[in-house]
Design a protein that fits this description.
alpha/beta, 8-stranded mixed beta sheet, 9 helices
Length: 287
C-alpha cells in the first residue's frame, strides 16, 4: 500500500480542488490519501463525492498552533467534524486569517512591495487565505522566485518583516480537543528549520506525555540526518512515525506520494480513531 497522510486543496492553500486532488492521488498510484487543509474541513464533501474506486480518503485538518512563540502545525486525523468545541476553535482561526493577511499586505506595501489585497484575494479564491497566498503574490510580482523563498526573515517567516500573528491554538489544547472529538494527532514537520524556529525535543516529549500520537518524520523539509534523529526520538517516546508529501499542487515542488507512511502505522492510526473512519472510493462523479 502507498499511503500519503498530508495533502492540501483549494479549501485552504493548495491549487488542486478537492476533486482534482483525489483524482491526482489515484493517478499517482496512491492507495490512501489524507486531505488535511489548514483549519478547515470544507473540502471533505467534494473529495468524498469525487473519490475514485481503489482510493481511500482519510479526513483530517492541519491545525495552526503556537508554543512559546513558535509555530506548530498539528495534523488531526479522523475526528468528528461536528464536535462543537473543536469546530469553534477552527472557526476562530479561520476568522482571523483574513485580517492577518490584510495586515501582511499592509506591511509589504510599507516595505515598497506593490502587492494589493485584491491580488491576494484572487489567488486565495474560495480557500482559507494564508501566508502561501501572500507568498504567491510575491512570486507573481517577481519579488521572490518561489513560494518557499518568501518564507524568510526578509518577508513572511515567523517574526519576519511582513509577518503578522493570528489566533492559534495551544498544541496541548489541540491534542485534548482532537482526542475529545475521537481523532488522532501527529506533529507535522517538527524539525523543518528552513521554515523558522522549531520547538525543542523536550517540548515534543511534553506533548507526547499529553497524548500526542505521532510525529511526521519523512518530509521534504527534513534531511536524512534529521529523519534518523526524529525516528530515534519517536522510538524513545513511543510515538508513531509518518511520512507525507505535504502536497500543495503547483504551489510547491513536492509530489503526491513523494513520501509515504508505513501501512502498519496507518493501521494503528485507524485503530485509535473513533470520531470518523477512512472512506474507500467507489468511483466518484466528475466535477
Amino acid at each position: 500500500m502507498r499511503i500519503d497522510l498530508h495533502a492540501h486543496s483549494t479549501a485552504s492553500d493548495g491549487t488542486d480542488t478537492p476533486a482534482e486532488l483525489v483524482r491526482h492521488a489515484a493517478a499517482a498510484g496512491l492507495d490512501v490519501v489524507a486531505l488535511t487543509d489548514h483549519d478547515t474541513v470544507g473540502g471533505h464533501g467534494e473529495a468524498l463525492a469525487a473519490l475514485p474506486a481503489g482510493l481511500t480518503l482519510v479526513t483530517g485538518a492541519e491545525l495552526s498552533c503556537r508554543l512559546d512563540g513558535i509555530g506548530v502545525h498539528m495534523l488531526a486525523y479522523l475526528f468528528d467534524p461536528e464536535e462543537p468545541e473543536l469546530a469553534r476553535e477552527r472557526e476562530l482561526v479561520r476568522d482571523d486569517r483574513t485580517p492577518r493577511a490584510r495586515t501582511m499586505v499592509d506591511k509589504l506595501r510599507a516595505l515598497g512591495v506593490d502587492v494589493t489585497w485584491e491580488q491576494v484575494a484572487r489567488i486565495a479564491g474560495d480557500g482559507s487565505v494564508g501566508r502561501p497566498h501572500v507568498a504567491t503574490a510575491l512570486v507573481e510580482l517577481g519579488v521572490v522566485p518561489t513560494v518557499s523563498d518568501a518564507f524568510t526573515p526578509d518577508w513572511l517567516a515567523d517574526g519576519g518583516r511582513a509577518y503578522a500573528e493570528k489566533h492559534e491554538l495551544d498544541p496541548f489544547d489541540a491534542i485534548r480537543l482532537v482526542k475529545a472529538a475521537g481523532g488522532v494527532t501527529v506533529f507535522a514537520h517538527p524539525a523543518a528549520v528552513k521554515r523558522g524556529r522549531c520547538v525543542p525535543e523536550s517540548a515534543i516529549a511534553e506533548l507526547a506525555a499529553a497524548g500526542l500520537d505521532g510525529i511526521e518524520v519523512d518530509h521534504m523539509d527534513h534531511d536524512t540526518g534529521t529523519r534518523a534523529r526524529l525516528r530515534g526520538l519517536a522510538g524513545d517516546l513511543g510515538l508513531l512515525t509518518t511520512g507525507s508529501s505535504d502536497y500543495h499542487g503547483s504551489r510547491k515542488t513536492c509530489r503526491l506520494g513523494e513520501y509515504t507512511t508505513d501501512p502498519e502505522i496507518y493501521g494503528e492510526i485507524t485503530r485509535r480513531a473513533t470520531g470518523a473512519f477512512p472512506v474507500p472510493g467507489a468511483g466518484g462523479r466528475e466535477r
